[in-house]
């Protein structure tokens, strides 16, 4: 189960990072274009920067969230559930921070909406109480997380 979670996290982080407007051959985090390529127009550069920040938020927060969910399923207690809820809240905070300074009004709006939705989900004790098996964890980390993040990640594909 742990291998599946790790593979899912690495695959998801890779997908987000490779979709961050790097079509000109620049690697994520690099501001240099490939030889012979022209610089990105300011709007695309801003989108790329926002997508890289979102990728970093994902990378830094989904692993701890996945680990907390796994611990919650392995030994369900109020503490393990609270930890999982807190980690999802941390992801929400990171998404909000990654998009709050964007000059693109739509990314900023979608980031706020996504963060608000993640925050609400992180406070939903009934939702977390329903996560009882590794299959439930995989669903949360796969299709559910993808759906929750879709308002912002569609800017990066």
TrEMBL record:
<keyword id="KW-0732">Signal</keyword>
<feature type="signal peptide">
    <location>
        <begin position="1"/>
        <end position="19"/>
    </location>
</feature>
<protein>
    <recommendedName>
        <fullName>Lipoprotein</fullName>
    </recommendedName>
</protein>
